Structure formats: structure tokens, C-alpha cells
């Protein structure tokens, strides 16, 4: 009978050294300290992932250019498309806001499937995909087709009281692309790709004696000292710089967070949209837009918009400020609560883009100069910038800094 040997892995969340079976046989390996996923065996192989990615790429032109929904305005059908909303926003004088919408709804989804296909091609031509794998792990949070799908429903509720609304059969292409992309997220595992393309970098045996280091980029646990010409320690597998001090990491988080907070001031005070009906124009801020849905009796839509546009951005900023202060002052607070807060920030950050996607869909349907018109307000750019900056801030916050403070307090208590 073949023995399933144990290997050593460091947890990327808490830095705990854990013995993990080399072959999981359909199981998931969890860190016993923080319960983070160390490895899993329910992923697809590269060939199957490439087939799904190719199917998504074939459907994308239809999903992005075909009508998602249509309105009948004075007998004239007007269609909303993913591309049309961003293009209309750009041509109406909001190119930077349009780029944010385009970046998350078209550019990043296309880049994601192209990277998966590129890795498959590199496997065929026997080329190592170092930079491809690094990019694959970094762009996944920016692919927001699922958020766009929810925005489609919010936009439908927002416009149904003004014009006759219908969904197109071509919407199925976008729904299929969204489902397949989400499935690909779940089933692809970059860590497996690193192990496949770089087999010489073997995991440490369970009886290894030393002080292993974890590379957070490729999740490789090693006990080698690789230094470049500038004296910076590098990962032997992906060559990432491992000598960035915690002070520099915190400066990056503070800079992005403070910039995001500054952007939130005009985002919440200036009008984010303006709707015109029979010559009467009404401008809405983020909060007044929620009140409009409530006055129309659309309480569920009002709740979705309030959570995504107001509650989530402010709570995300509050949580990040708390975690940064906890690191700075080394507060002795429950570590598992802090981890739950950090996971919350990572999960909800992208959903704040919902409002910009709704604006793009509205721009695609309603043009200026019509009896029923719609235009984007100045707050849209600041809101999108705040979402981007807070997402960057949360991605730069290293959870291991919080765990080191936790370990330090435990050592002081035991001594």
C-alpha cells in the first residue's frame, strides 16, 4: 500500500507551520490554527479549465455586445448592452468613470480567461508560466461579472416605472458567461499550477528542521536563502521580493485608505445621477437615490443599493482603520474576530461597484435630449475611485502582522 507522506506548509494567513498530506484524495487541508484553506483536491486539471475558458471567450462577444434588456420609448426600442453603457458614458464626457466600468466588466474578465488559455498554451510549448500565474492570482478580485448581473436587476427595477421594460433572449449569453467564469474561479487552483510547472521545488518533508519561509505570492514554503544583487531576499520559485518590511506594507495601506476616504467625501455629497422627465430634471446623491426607491415601494432594491453603495464602503473603511490601529498600538483583541473583519473587507469590497454598473446600464438606455433622459453626476468618478482605492488598501493588508501581535501577547502571558 502506498504511504501518503506528510509535508510542511506555512499558512499564508497566520504563518503557522502545518503538516499536510501530500495527496489529499478529494479532501481539503485546513490550518488548525486559523482554519484557512491550505490546499484542496476538488479542483479541475488545466485541460478542463482551458476548455471552459475557451467557451467563455467564444461567448464573450455576444455577452458584451448583445442586448441585455430593452425599453419601449414612444414606440422606439432602446437596448442596453455591457459595451454600450461604458461607451455612452465615455462619449458623454465621463471617460474615467467609463474606464472603471470597462475595466471590471470587460477588460478583467477577458484578461482572466486569456491568462488561463495562455497557461495551457505554455504547457504545450513547454514554457514556464511564472508571470502568467502571478497575474492570474492578482486579477481575480477585479472580475465583477456577478456584480454586474445583480446591477442588471437593480437597473430594471429603477427604470420599470418610467418605460415598458423587457429582457432579451440574448441575456442568456451574459448569464452563461457569468456562471462559467464563477465556476472557473472555484475550480482553478494556481497553487497546483506552480507545483506542476516547477516540480523541482518540492515541499519540505514533515521532519525538516529549520525555520521555513512562506512566499505569499506562489504559496511556496522553503528553507533557502536566495538574495539578489541588491541584498533583497527572493522566492526561489516565483522570484518575488520577500524583503519588504511591515512598515512599508502599512504605509501602502494607509496611503490607499486615506486617498479613498478623501474620495468618499465628494462621492457622497455631489449628485451621482440626474434623471429628466418631460423637462423636469432631478439630481440624486447616493443617499437620496435610496430614498427614491423607498418612496416607490421598492424596499428590497433600496436595501441592496443602500448596502452596496453606503453601508459597505463606510463599514469597509471603519474596519480597515480599526485593523491598522490595532497593528500600530498592538491591541490585545480577539484575533479570530479581527480575521472575520478582514475576510469581510475582502469579500464585500468589490460589491460597491454595483452603483457604477447601474449607472452604465441607465446611460445605455436613456439618452440626453429625450423625453425621459439620464446622465451621470460628478460623484460617480469619486465613488469609483474610492472603491478602487479601498480594494487596493485591503489587498495590501497582511494578516500575518495581526497574528504576530497575537503570538507576542500570548508569549508575554505565558512567561
UniProtKB/TrEMBL annotation:
Belongs to the PqiA family. This is Paraquat-inducible protein A. Keywords: Cell inner membrane, Cell membrane, Membrane, Transmembrane, Transmembrane helix. It is found in: Cell inner membrane. Signal peptide: none annotated. It is a multi-pass membrane protein. The keyword Transferase does not apply. The keyword Transmembrane helix applies. Its main location: membrane. The lineage of its organism: Bacteria, Pseudomonadati, Pseudomonadota, Gammaproteobacteria, Pasteurellales. The chain crosses the membrane at residues 49-69, 96-121, 142-159, 165-186, 253-281, 301-329, 341-365, 371-394.
Amino acid at each position: 500500500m502506498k504511504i501518503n507522506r506528510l509535508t510542511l506548509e506555512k499558512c499564508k494567513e497566520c504563518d503557522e507551520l502545518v503538516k499536510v498530506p501530500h495527496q489529499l484524495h478529494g479532501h481539503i487541508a485546513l490550518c488548525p490554527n486559523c482554519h484557512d484553506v491550505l490546499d484542496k483536491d476538488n479542483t479541475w486539471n488545466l485541460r478542463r479549465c482551458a476548455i471552459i475558458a475557451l467557451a467563455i471567450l467564444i461567448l464573450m462577444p455576444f455577452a458584451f455586445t448583445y442586448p441585455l434588456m430593452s425599453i419601449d420609448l414612444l414606440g422606439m426600442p432602446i437596448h442596453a448592452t455591457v459595451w454600450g453603457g461604458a461607451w455612452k458614458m465615455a462619449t458623454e464626457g465621463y471617460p474615467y468613470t467609463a474606464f472603471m466600468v470597462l475595466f471590471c466588466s470587460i477588460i478583467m474578465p477577458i484578461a482572466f480567461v486569456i491568462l488561463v488559455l495562455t497557461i495551457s498554451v505554455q504547457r504545450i510549448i513547454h514554457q514556464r508560466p511564472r508571470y502568467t500565474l502571478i497575474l492570474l492570482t492578482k486579477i481575480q478580485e477585479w472580475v465583477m461579472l456577478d456584480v454586474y448581473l445583480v446591477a442588471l436587476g437593480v437597473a430594471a427595477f429603477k427604470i420599470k416605472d418610467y418605460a415598458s421594460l423587457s429582457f432579451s433572449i440574448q441575456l442568456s449569453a451574459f448569464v452563461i458567461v457569468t456562471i462559467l467564469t464563477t465556476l472557473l474561479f472555484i475550480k482553478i487552483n494556481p497553487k497546483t499550477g506552480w507545483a506542476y510547472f516547477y516540480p523541482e521545488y518540492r515541499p519540505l518533508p514533515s521532519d525538516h528542521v529549520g525555520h521555513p519561509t512562506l512566499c505569499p505570492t506562489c504559496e511556496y514554503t522553503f528553507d533557502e536563502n536566495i538574495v539578489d544583487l541588491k541584498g533583497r531576499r527572493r522566492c526561489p520559485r516565483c522570484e518575488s521580493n520577500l524583503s519588504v518590511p511591515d512598515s512599508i506594507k502599512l504605509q501602502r495601506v494607509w496611503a490607499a485608505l486615506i486617498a479613498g476616504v478623501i474620495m468618499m467625501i465628494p462621492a457622497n455629497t455631489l449628485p451621482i445621477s440626474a434623471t429628466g422627465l418631460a423637462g423636469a430634471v432631478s439630481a440624486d446623491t447616493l443617499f437620496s437615490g435610496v430614498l427614491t426607491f423607498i418612496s416607490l415601494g421598492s424596499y428590497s432594491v433600496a436595501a441592496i443599493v443602500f448596502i452596496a453603495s453606503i453601508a459597505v464602503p463606510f463599514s469597509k473603511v471603519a474596519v480597515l482603520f480599526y485593523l491598522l490601529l490595532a497593528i500600530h498600538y498592538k491591541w490585545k483583541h480577539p484575533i479570530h474576530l479581527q480575521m472575520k473583519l478582514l475576510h469581510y473587507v475582502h469579500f464585500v469590497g468589490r460589491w460597491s461597484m454595483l452603483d457604477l454598473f447601474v449607472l452604465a446600464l441607465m446611460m445605455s438606455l436613456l439618452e440626453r435630449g429625450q423625453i425621459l433622459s439620464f446622465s451621470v453626476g460628478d460623484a460617480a468618478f469619486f465613488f469609483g475611485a474610492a472603491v478602487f482605492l479601498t480594494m487596493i488598501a485591503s489587498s495590501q493588508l497582511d494578516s500575518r502582522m495581526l497574528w504576530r501581535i497575537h503570538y507576542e501577547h500570548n508569549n508575554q502571558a505565558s512567561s
